[in-house]
Design brief:
D-Maltodextrin-Binding Protein, domain 2; single chain; 561 residues; amino-acid biosynthesis; BirA Bifunctional Protein, domain 2; catalytic activity, acting on a protein; binds 1-O-pyrophosphono-5-O-phosphono-alpha-D-ribofuranose; six-stranded mixed β-sheet; 23 strands; 39% helix; ATP binding; alpha+beta
Length: 561
C-alpha cells in the first residue's frame, strides 16, 4: 500500500527559517497596528460544528469546507473563516458585554481549493471586527485600520477599493428576473464581463434598473466613478441615492485622512460599483485591498449587520481579514532570498516591461497581430519570433508571452501576466477568477454536439458516450438537458473517437465544419458560440489601471469599428 508519509497534502506547505521570519514580521506589525487602536485578541477553535458555518444562510459552498466527524457522529468543519466563529463567540460568551467590542484575530483558515491551481488551502489570516456600532465613524475606523495595516506592511504599494453591496441588492430586487438570471447577472458583474452582461440584459424590457446594471461593472476608478454614478442614478429610488451619498462620504473621509508615511491617499483609494463579492454575507459597505505582487486581493471586508441574527443577536458590525501569507511572500521577495533568482531572469534578457500579455498560441496569434498592427502596436518581434516565447512590443511598455490556452488563464489568474487573450471555450472549461472585459470578435466558432452522419443519437436506452476535449462544458450541457451521459476526455482530434467506436458522439468546437465533414460526422445540436476574449488579472486592473485602461480603449476602438 502506498504511504503518503513524505509529502504534505496539496494546498499546504512547510515554512522554514526565512519564511517563518517573514510571517512573524507581518504578524507583529499587524498586531501592533490593531492593538494601537485598542483591539483585543481572540482565538477560536480550529474546527467548529458544521452548523456554525451553515446556519440560516450558507455563506460558503459546502464543498469548500474540510469536514470531520466527532465521536458522537456529529459533523464538524475546519475553520473556513474567522468572522463567523467570532460572531458565534460574541453572541454566546460575550453576550451582554459592553459595546462596542473591538476584537482581532491571527489564525489559520482552511478552504478546499480547485485541484492543481497553485492555491493554498491553509491560509494565515489576521483581521479585526468592530461589533456594536453602525455609524459612519465606525466604518471609517475600520477602513483606516485597514489602510494602516497595509501601509505598515507594504508602504505605499497598495490600493484600497470600496463598494456598496446594498446598491446591487436593491437593483436586483427591482429587476423582475428568475433566481438563475440573477445569479448570472451577479457573476457577469463580478467578472466585468460587459459584453455578456449587455447580452443577458437585452432580454429585459428597457428600464433605468437595466441601464444602471449594464453600467455597474464599468463604474470603477477614482472620484470620477462616483460622479458618473450620480448622473446614472439620477431620479432612481431615494434609497439608492442615499447609498451612493454614503459611499461618497466614506470616500471623501478616507482621502482626507492623514496617515503618516502615505503621500496621496487619493491615488490609493478607489471605488468599484462592480464589487459584489460574497453578496450573502455583507449588508452595505464592502472593500478590498490589493498589493502589486499578489494576483488576488489581500484584504477583504465590509459591514455585516445581518450575520448575528444567525446566532440570535441583532448587532451591527464591520470588519476585514488580511491574507498574511501574501504579505509575507511580498516581504520575502523584498528581502534577499529571492534576489539571485530574479537577477538571473533579468540578466537573461531585455528589461521587463510594465504590462505583460499572455497570448494563446496558434489560431488566435494571427488575428491578434492584425489587431495590434491596426492600433499601431509594433508586432515585429511576434512576426519574427522563431522559438522565442517572450516578445516585447518595441513601441509600447508591453511584453507578449505565448502560451497554451489553459495556461493563459493560469498566468493571468496568478497575476504573473496582467492581460490574456484566450478563447471563450477555454474560459468555459477552465473557469477561474479574472475580469473578462472584451469580446474581441475574432476566433469565432461554436460548440456543437456532432455524431456519425445518419446515426440516431437519441434512440435506445443505453447511456451514450461522449468524447470531448471539454468535459466540463459537455457535462454541463447534458446536465441542463437532464440526460445521463458518460463523458470521456480526449486530448485532441476528438473526431477519431466515434470513428473508432469509442463514443456515440462528440462535443467540440466547430469552425468551418471541414474536420467533421471529412470524417463523416454531422452537427445535430449547436451548444453556443465562442470567440476570443480579453481577460485581465483582478489586482492588475487596480494596480495598473491607467495603463490597462489605455490598452483596452485602444483595442476597443478597433473591435467596435
Ligand atoms: C479544432 C476542433 C476541431 C477542428 C474544427 O481542433 O477540435 O477538430 O478544430 O475546425 P473546423 O470546423 O474548421 O474543421 P484543433 O485544430 O484545435 O486541433 P486538435 O483537435 O488536435 O486539438
Amino acid at each position: 500500500m502506498r504511504k503518503y508519509d513524505r509529502i504534505t497534502p496539496e494546498g499546504t506547505r512547510d515554512l522554514l527559517f526565512e519564511e517563518c521570519a517573514a510571517q512573524k514580521g507581518i504578524l507583529n506589525q499587524l498586531r501592533e497596528t490593531f492593538e494601537a487602536r485598542m483591539y483585543h485578541e481572540v482565538i477560536t477553535p480550529g474546527f467548529e460544528f458544521y452548523d456554525v458555518f451553515s446556519s440560516s444562510s450558507m455563506y460558503f459552498p459546502q464543498e469548500s469546507m474540510y469536514k470531520l466527524i466527532d465521536h458522537k457522529g456529529r459533523l464538524l468543519a475546519m475553520r473556513a473563516d474567522s468572522t463567523i466563529p467570532i460572531a458565534r463567540l460574541t453572541a454566546t460568551k460575550l453576550k451582554g458585554h459592553a459595546l462596542p467590542l473591538r476584537l482581532y484575530y491571527a489564525q489559520r483558515i482552511y478552504r478546499q481549493q480547485p485541484e492543481l491551481r497553485g492555491r493554498s488551502s491553509e491560509t494565515m489570516q489576521m483581521g479585526i471586527e468592530l461589533i456594536g456600532l453602525s455609524t459612519f465613524e465606525s466604518d471609517i475606523e475600520v477602513l483606516t485600520t485597514g489602510i494602516e495595516a497595509l501601509a505598515a506592511c507594504c508602504g505605499e504599494d497598495f490600493r484600497l477599493e470600496l463598494g456598496h453591496i446594498g446598491i446591487f441588492k436593491l437593483l436586483m430586487e427591482d429587476l423582475d428576473a428568475t433566481s438563475e438570471q440573477k445569479e448570472n447577472i451577479h457573476s457577469l458583474i463580478s467578472s466585468k464581463n460587459y459584453a455578456g452582461l449587455a447580452d443577458l440584459l437585452e432580454a429585459f424590457p428597457a428600464s433605468q434598473t437595466v441601464e444602471i446594471l449594464k453600467e455597474l461593472p464599468k463604474l470603477f476608478g477614482g472620484k470620477e466613478a462616483l460622479e458618473k454614478a450620480r448622473i446614472l442614478f439620477n431620479g432612481y429610488d431615494s434609497k439608492l441615492i442615499e447609498m451612493l451619498s454614503y459611499l461618497e462620504r466614506i470616500y471623501q473621509g478616507l482621502i482626507e485622512l492623514n496617515i503618516s508615511g502615505i503621500e496621496n491617499l487619493q491615488d490609493k483609494v478607489m471605488i468599484d460599483f462592480g464589487l459584489v463579492h460574497q453578496a450573502e454575507y455583507y449588508s452595505s459597505l464592502i472593500f478590498r485591498g490589493y498589493i502589486s505582487s499578489a494576483g488576488e486581493h489581500v484584504l477583504s471586508g465590509g459591514r455585516y449587520d445581518e450575520l448575528f441574527k444567525d446566532f440570535g443577536e441583532n448587532l451591527p458590525a464591520t470588519g476585514f481579514g488580511i491574507n498574511v501569507d501574501q504579505l509575507a511572500a511580498k516581504r520575502l521577495k523584498e528581502m534577499d532570498y529571492n534576489a539571485k533568482a530574479e537577477k538571473a531572469v533579468s540578466d537573461s534578457g531585455t528589461p521587463e516591461k510594465n504590462i505583460r500579455i499572455a497570448l494563446t498560441k496558434g489560431r488566435l496569434e494571427k488575428n491578434f497581430m492584425d489587431l495590434f498592427d491596426t492600433i499601431g502596436y509594433d508586432c515585429v518581434n511576434l512576426k519574427e519570433k522563431g522559438r522565442k516565447l517572450l516578445l516585447p512590443i518595441p513601441n509600447k511598455d508591453i511584453d507578449v508571452v505565448l502560451a497554451k490556452a489553459a495556461d493563459v488563464i493560469t498566468y493571468v489568474e496568478h497575476g504573473v501576466c496582467d492581460v490574456g487573450i484566450v478563447g471563450k471555450d477555454t474560459i468555459l472549461e477552465s473557469g477561474g477568477t479574472f475580469y473578462e472585459v472584451l469580446d474581441l470578435g475574432f476566433g469565432k466558432c461554436r460548440f456543437a454536439l456532432a455524431v456519425p452522419k445518419g446515426s440516431d443519437f437519441y434512440s435506445g436506452y443505453s447511456t451514450k458516450r461522449i468524447a470531448t476535449k471539454y468535459p466540463k462544458v459537455a457535462s454541463t450541457y447534458f446536465e441542463s438537458k437532464g440526460m445521463d451521459v458518460e463523458v470521456i476526455k480526449i486530448e485532441g482530434s476528438v473526431e477519431l473517437a466515434p470513428l473508432l467506436s469509442l463514443a456515440d458522439g462528440i462535443v467540440d468546437i466547430v469552425e468551418t465544419g471541414t474536420t467533421l465533414r471529412e470524417n463523416g460526422l454531422e452537427v445535430i445540436e449547436e451548444i453556443r458560440g465562442v470567440s476570443a476574449r480579453l481577460i485581465v488579472n483582478i489586482a492588475s486592473m487596480k494596480m495598473k489601471k491607467t495603463e490597462i485602461d489605455r490598452l483596452i480603449a485602444d483595442i476597443q476602438q478597433k473591435v467596435r469599428g
